[in-house]
Specification:
- It is a single chain.
- The chain is of the alpha/beta class.
- The protein folds into 2 domains: 126 residues, Aspartate Aminotransferase, domain 1 (Alpha-Beta Complex), CATH 3.90.1150.10; 221 residues, 3-Layer(aba) Sandwich (Aspartate Aminotransferase, domain 2).
- The protein is built from 14 helices and 12 strands.
- Strands 2-8-7-6-5-3-4 form a 7-stranded mixed β-sheet, with helices on both faces.
- A hairpin with a 5-residue loop joins strand 9 and strand 10.
- Bound molecules: pyridoxal-5'-phosphate (PLP).
- Pyridoxal-5'-phosphate binds next to helix 4.
Length: 373
Amino acid sequence: MIEPRPEVKGLPIYRPGRPGHVSAEAVQNLAANENAWGPSPLAVEAWRRWDGGATYPDMAGQILQEALEAQWEVPSSAMLLGTGSGHLIKCLAETYLRPGDQAATLHPTFSLYAQGASLMGAQVAALPGAGHQVNWAALPDWVADHHPRLVFLCTPNNPTGDVAPAAVIQAVLAALGDDGLLVLDEAYRDFSLPEPDTTRLLAVHANVVLLRTLSKAYGLAGLRVGAMLAAPAVVDAVGRVREPFPVSAPALLMGRAAVLDEPYRRQVVAAVQVGRRRLEWALAARGWSVNPSQANFVWAAPPSGDAEAWLGELSARGILVRWGGSFGVPDHLRITVGTPVQEGLLLAALDDIAERRQAPFPGDREGGLAGGR
Ligand SMILES: Cc1ncc(COP(=O)(O)O)c(C=O)c1O
């Protein structure tokens, strides 16, 4: 039997927030950082008007690019679309990493950076975390010591929810020099208050790449649309690697309509920001330790420390959250901000679990231990 490349054999398998065998209807999925409010009604309307799939879509995705150019104020020469931003992470690794190269990233963070780099035979240098948090202050020296060709920073970071400080980004760029590329994955950028002013970095630094997606704030995770913003030379190089027609025709239509409906995006972002504050407060009031978040999820630890047990007990009640163990931080959970209804169900489940844990054993209620347990 033919063997895959050694780099492939060691690759971890990506685990989705909702396992395939669990039906979407059966659960409240707060494990995948999707957008519980869904896409703009205008996007759904655009889908209904789509009239067929006999021809290939426009390869550059011009109708969507035009809308995104206006939204983000970047020229088309600085933009490349992909089948979700995860696809573009892989394309960047394929374009720039050679066997033995260094790629730097954070800990804890999103797994696709290490996956893409390892696939190319590169070494992954993950900055050691500070407990359950990112050690942002140590990052510039880490980059200077490791001479990576690519640095992948997630900001706001998945799973910790915090934003890379602007001074750290500047110091990383200084440490990186001209022969490295800094990739800022901004999948959750829309939810930050204020939105980080990263787009202007493109005008000053030819070695900065911004990754964005329509999966989160625009509620279109099922469509698979992401975008890379970078210097034209980077767009040209990655464009040679990326396969043709990465975004389907209906995804271009829906994506354009969603991007043009700016009032709806703002409404959803505001709802997430309010929901996030409420969830942080409600968890803290129940004794959880909470990392302040700028994303559409909260990174928190139960008072009893046994996050995996809480994960199981929540899941038994139909509520899925993400276990920190998948990020190497087993005492934490990552919980997506849901609608007020989902939040109510989550908090009721947490209270029920806490109550059952405190309840005396039946034998104790009878005034003693009747038998073995
Ligand atoms: C940090 C981060 N980047 C990228 C992605 C992938 O997003 P997309 O749906 O655009 O592939 C995710 C998905 O959850 C993510 O958390």
